[in-house]
Amino acid sequence: MSVTSIILGLFLVLNMIFAVFVVFQGRRDIGSTWAWLLVLYFIPILGFIMYLFLAQDYRRVKLFKWGDLDKIGIRNLSQAQLDSLGSPDSMRSLGKIASRHADLIHLHLKGSRALWSQDNEVETLTDGRAKFDRLLADIAAATETVHFQTYIFRCDSLGREVLDALTAKAKQGVKVRLLYDELGSRRLSKRMLRPLIEAGGEAAAFFPSRFRVFNLRMNYRNHRKLVIMDGRIGYVGGFNVGNEYLGLDPKFGYWRDTHLRIRGSAVHSLQTRFILDWNQATRKHDIIYEQELFPEDAPAGEVGMQIVASGPNSRLEHIKQGYIKMIASAKHSIYLQSPYFIPDASMLEALRIAVLSGVHVHVMIPDKPDHMFIYWATLYNIGELLETGANVYLYKNGFIHAKTLVVDQEIASVGTANTDVRSFKLNFEVNAFIYDANVSLRLVEAFKQDIAVSELLTIEKYRSRPLRIKFKESISRLLSPIL
Questions:
Q1: Which active-site residues does the annotation give?
Q2: Which of 224, 309, 345, 451 has the smallest number of Cβ neighbours within 10 A?
């Protein structure tokens, strides 16, 4: 037996031992376990390296300190809301829509301590240029603080436009903090940030690595997009910072996304989320709990809302659970938009049950991929819904990146979470759950306008796709738990 054969055999044995003692350790779900077994079996050496980079389990890691929540009073406030929820006075104050969905409010209060508020004004923004013009105007009007958090921050013309606006505010004495994900913003250079820092602003990277090429936490990224001005105006949604979000990338064309501009008490929840993420990234836990970050203002509107965050540090998948609860409550219609559609079995089954129960289920995905494996896995799962009778639309006017769910035109969710395993389990995400007919109707109307530039995917057309596409879908489906 040659030395090469002995070394190869040793590698294979070690790979099997590694699979037994590492992949099966912890409370990893069965789908993810089998996906990693396939990777380790078919690509033993590279698979081992991939596991080290992509498969760490953060559910038992306390990334965010409960003491931070105590300083803001979140634990006491959420418990007080839980205690009062269901009382006659509380139910009357909720209004008809929120009272019909008090169980969903309870779910988010109990599961993720997502505070309830109903004094909010919500503006929906679906065009990139309009969104950034609105945002830049709000930044220019800020007088005390600007907290800016994003997954992707490009070093292009829009990136420079945003950084110039932040730098100008820092020069005026406004406290500016920029938090970005290191992997998503890997091309954001220190040189580009220097003017902001020199003007008195601060910048921090989430989950950084000493060696930017090798990041053992590369599979767990902060995908949240938040901006909060003076604790009074907040933004949350799908737009990152880059020229493609203005429709300037010829590969994607027009970029269709959904973002919310919020005024009211829900902004305090966005502020809290930023504080927790900033503290985790900077390792500072004492510097931004000033009372002025949470100003008490007159009601801005009457929209009921909860800001729900989820991430791999939590045992529960808060946003996914909210989605499933919404879908299960549907009586008439469901409108879902997502650039990726790779739900786990529980959410896919919830949608199928809704269709079979007579609910009109409408799902919209892009007609063009930005990640091939994810797109093929999306097509496989879309087939499952088509077989049941759902309406599926392929958006053809560029690329759709919106993450919206609307049920019965009275409750909705808009945020950063895609309809896939990565967003529900691996990424740090944040969504606004909205209990309001007017906002829900605006989101449905935007969906219907998108239908005009989309193609209805019929079951006949889906079944006639080429054999090579079916093969790619099947392979991608097996890997979908770790995509």
A1: 223, 225, 230, 401, 403, 408
A2: 345
Measured between alpha carbons, how far apart are the two ends of the chain, in Å?
39
Write down how long the chain is: 483
Residue 9: predicted pLDDT: 65
Gap between the Cα atoms of 88 and 384, Å rounded: 43
Is residue 63 over pLDDT 90? no
Cα angle 414-420-425, degrees, rounded to a multiple of 5: 95
pLDDT in tens, 256-301: 999 999 999 999 999 999 999 998 898 876 556 677 889 988 899 9
- The pLDDT-based confidence of 1 (bands split at 50, 70, 90) is low
Residue 278's nearest CA partner among 224, 214, 215, 354 is 224
Q: In whole angstroms, give the CA distance from residue 160 to residue 199.
A: 15
Token duo for residue 230? 């003076």
Predicted TM-score of the model (pTM): 0.86
Three-class SS state of 45:
helix
Pairing assessment for the beta strands 303-310 and 116-127 based on DSSP bridges: antiparallel
Tokens of 324: 């499933």
How far is 214 from 53, CA to CA, in rounded Å? 8
pLDDT digits (tens, 9 = 90+) for 351-398: 999 999 999 999 999 998 776 667 777 888 888 899 999 999 999 999
The token duo for 275 is 């504080």
CA distances from 251 to 106, 327, 370, 418 (A): 43, 34, 9, 21
pLDDT category at 214 given cuts 50, 70, 90 is low
**DSSP sequence for 291-339:** GGGS--------EEEEEEEE-TTSSS-HHHHHHHHHHHH-SSEEEEE-S
Tracing tokens 């007609």 back to the chain, one arrives at: 367
Query: Which helix (H) or strand (E) covers residue 391, if one does?
Result: strand 391-395
pLDDT band at 421 (very low <50, low <70, confident <90, very high): confident
Which has the closest alpha carbon to 369: 394, 345, 390, 387? Answer: 394
Reading the block at residue 430, the tokens are 């944040």
Greatest alpha-carbon span in the chain: 82
- Amino acid at the residue 199: A
For β-strands 333-337 and 419-420, DSSP reports them as unpaired
Structure tokens at 79: 């418990």
- 216-225, 235-244, 365-374 — which one is most confidently predicted on average? 235-244
For residue 166, CA distances in Å to 131, 169, 242, 442, 479 come to 16, 5, 15, 31, 41
* SS3 assignment, position 63: coil
Round to whole Å and give the CA distance between 30 and 33: 5
